[in-house]
Amino acid sequence: MPFPSVPQNSIAVTQITEWSDGCFQAHQDDLAVEEPLEIRIATAAGPVRLTVTMRTPGHDRELAAGLLLSEGILTSPDQILSLTPYTPEASARANGMKATLDGVNFDPAQHQRGFASTSACGLCGKSAIEAIRQSGLRAPNPDLRVDPEFLCSLPDQLRAAQTVFTRTGGLHAAALFDARGNLLVLREDIGRHNAVDKVVGWALLEGKLPLSEAILLVSGRGGFEIIQKALCAGIPVLASVSAPSSLAVQLARELNLTLIGFLRERRFVVYSGLERLTSGDGRA
Q1: Looking at the domain assignment, is residue 7 inside a domain?
Q2: Are residues 152 and 119 in the same domain?
Q3: In CATH, what number is assigned to the domain containing residue 59?
Q4: Domain residues for 69?
């Protein structure tokens, strides 16, 4: 697939002063944009604010769709009647997305966040511990097999397709690959959980769920919220270039998701789901 273009409003230009080898020099520099996105859900009583998340503008419909799926509010693209951008009060841009849904049981008391989520947090604002984990999570496809040599080639593809990171050095990325190593989609965001929501939202809107033959690669660590989002989308293999957390490993082992960390050059660590990894002759 062709590498994605830079989304509009995702990069800001600023003036900086660089010190190098004893000298100061003025430059123009690119920054990754961080702005709030307010997500509302239309109800019979009027629109209800679900959350405000700090994100990098671009692919906002996918972000909203992926978040609604990972929050357990919807399960099918057919339940989305519309996803419409709007301009919140006191905002100069259309940093809002309103979802009109059909056939869902949206309970504001259960799903609303207590405060805005930062770019570093995928679960902030949940009102109770029991609300963190989604109900109905299932074990993903047990039959997918992946060659370790193939896995080692994915980080280079990820880096080559990170158009905004190349200019700013300040974004996370999430990418989906098929079992043959073809890049299906890549999304970038200042929040690693947002990047995953954008990828999952893309798959939902394109009618490609469950992603039972896909591999998800993330540029940051593999936290619990990332594992949960992958499971919601039916992804059987998740790899990250950094470390997972203890709760992420626990959930991956419980539902037999193949979880890989420290995927760099020709080395990685398998935390769960070793049976999906095969040698070139097909042996595990």
Answers
A1: no
A2: no
A3: 3.10.20.10
A4: 35-128
Same domain as 158, residue 117: no
Is 121 annotated as catalytic? yes
Both 240 and 167 in a single domain? yes
Dihedral (C-alpha) 247, 248, 253, 256: value to the nearest 10 degrees? 150
Is-contact 99 79, C-beta < 8 A?
A: no
Question: Which among 44, 53, 234 is positioned nearest to 139, based on CA atoms?
Answer: 234
What does the alpha-carbon distance between residue 14 and residue 16 come to, in Å, rounded to a whole number?
6
Task: Say if CB 226 and CB 192 are below 8 A apart.
Answer: yes
For residues 47 and 91, membership in a common domain is answered with yes
Q: In this structure, what CATH number is given to the domain that contains residue 243?
A: 3.40.140.10
Side-chain-side CA neighbours of residue 268 (13 Å): 28
Do 163 and 262 belong to one domain?
yes
pLDDT at 133: 63
User: 166 and 269: one domain?
Assistant: yes
**Active-site residue among 23, 121, 124, 152?**
121
15-24, 81-90, 131-140 — which is least confidently predicted? 131-140
Model confidence at 1: pLDDT above 60: no
Average pLDDT (31-48) is: 92
Confidence of residue 45 (pLDDT cuts 50, 70, 90): confident
Looking only at the bridges linking them, the beta strands covering 23-32 and 11-20 are antiparallel
Q: What is the pLDDT of residues 214-245, one digit of tens each?
A: 999 999 889 999 999 999 999 999 999 999 99
Contact 175, 157 (CB under 8 A): yes
pTM of the model: 0.88
Asked whether 261 and 271 are in contact (CB, 8 A), the reply is: yes
